[in-house]
Design brief:
This protein is 71% helix and 9% strand. The chain is built from 9 helices and 4 strands. α3 runs antiparallel to α9 and α7 runs antiparallel to α9. The two termini are 42 Å apart.
């Protein structure tokens, strides 16, 4: 029989865990599909990609036409036609194309970063809503108990068994519990409204009674090496370095001689002169220090990339340590609360007259504070864990 009960309890816990996992996943999937900010970001990303492909082709050809009247009249008129096309050094076009592709990759990483920020905001709201929902279950029970106690003491007061001070204590206890319950309901409604806002105004009717399970990584270094590539900020910093190197190559190419080729013709007094023209720019002054500046820019971006990686690793290590310590506190609370369910014992002692009302309310408040601290620790643990989870996918 014990084995059967154990299996049933284990099955129930698995069902609850799967439901919680499904709730969080479904909410995040819905927000990902309906969030209007993400839709705007996607459209902006598409526009930016198109913009990055502009300005990478050759300059437009130039056509020049001239008609000159001769004076005196016998000199005849003159007609000129010039068609010219200017070219950068050929390698410049290759570097421009590579730079545009790199910038488009940068656009994708920027969108990924924006997407992750909104998803993390939604995940944190799910954790907060689950905390408030679990707290609501406790406050509902407390409100029911406080109301029963107040009603019972009101009857005793009416019968003359107790004085008004005793009755007022239960009424004040009921009032405080009602206010806590009302504040809790305000928080729940606010959190649901925030999730609905992130969901593009569409309501989310999923239950938030439990947190999803999370397999806490045992080794931070190994875990970090596995997830660091999922950080778009880190990849953006790395991409900035690559783009700067490409810009270096492009700057060199743009400082090489530019070529101008064209066709020209001249007609006067029935005589036509025509042929081709070729020109080459001499790079003496215009591009001075441009390559040197771009090299310095690359070095600065490399240092920023190293700093971004270090800051990211340290931030995650702090969150990892925080979650680890909160996990220990959470287990301690769970073990303590398993053997110290004082609410029923205190009520029995009060009913038998073994405990005064003031001591009952005092002891009960201590027990409630412990429960509240447990829920707060559980919430803080889940929030710390969510900071780690966001980088695992």
């Amino acid at each position: 029989m014990r084995r059967v009960i154990y299996i049933l309890l284990l099955s129930l816990l698995c069902v609850v865990s799967v439901e919680a996992q499904d709730t969080f996943s479904k909410v995040l999937e819905s927000i990902e599909a309906n969030n209007t900010t993400l839709k705007a970001y996607r459209e902006q990303a598409n526009a930016d990609k198109i913009g990055n492909k502009t300005g990478i082709n050759m300059a437009n050809p130039e056509v020049e036409f001239g008609y000159l009247w001769g004076s005196p009249a016998g000199e005849g008129n003159r007609t000129d036609l010039n068609v010219t096309q200017s070219f950068d050094f050929p390698t410049a076009y290759r570097y421009k194309s590579q730079l545009a592709a790199g910038k488009n990759k940068q656009v994708d990483l920027t969108y990924d970063q924006q997407h992750r920020e909104i998803m993390q905001q939604a995940r944190a709201l799910c954790v907060e809503l689950t905390y408030q929902t679990k707290l609501n279950e406790q406050l509902t029970q407390r409100l029911e108990s406080a109301r029963e106690l107040s009603d019972a003491y009101q009857k005793r007061f009416n019968q003359g068994d107790i004085d008004i001070l005793e009755r007022n204590k239960t009424k004040l206890d009921l009032l405080n519990t009602e206010k806590l319950y009302q504040i809790n309901m305000v928080e729940i409604n606010t959190l649901r409204a925030e999730l609905q806002r992130l969901n593009g105004g569409e309501p989310l009717v999923y239950p938030f009674g439990n947190y999803p399970d999370y397999l806490f990584p045992l080794n931070f270094t190994e875990w970090f090496e596995r997830v660091k590539e999922n950080n778009p900020s880190l990849r953006l910093a790395e991409q900035e370095v690559e783009l700067s190197k490409k810009q270096e190559q492009l700057t060199r190419a743009l400082n090489l001689p530019k070529i101008t080729a064209g066709y020209t013709s001249e007609r006067i007094l029935g005589t036509t002169l025509q042929g081709f023209t070729v020109g080459v720019s001499i790079p003496l002054w215009e591009g001075k220090n441009t390559v040197k500046h771009q090299k310095a820019q690359t070095v600065a971006l490399q240092m920023q990339h190293a700093d971004t990686k270090l800051q990211f690793q340290n931030t995650l290590k702090n969150q990892y340590d925080k979650a680890s310590k909160l996990s220990v506190l959470l287990n301690e609370y769970q073990e303590t609360l398993k053997v110290t369910n004082n609410r029923d014992l205190l009520k029995k002692a009060l009913d038998k007259g073994q405990l005064s009302l003031i001591n009952y309310l005092l002891e009960l408040s201590v027990y409630y504070v412990t429960i509240d601290k447990y829920y707060e620790t559980e919430r803080d643990y889940q929030l710390a864990v969510s900071e780690l989870q966001q980088w695992e996918r």
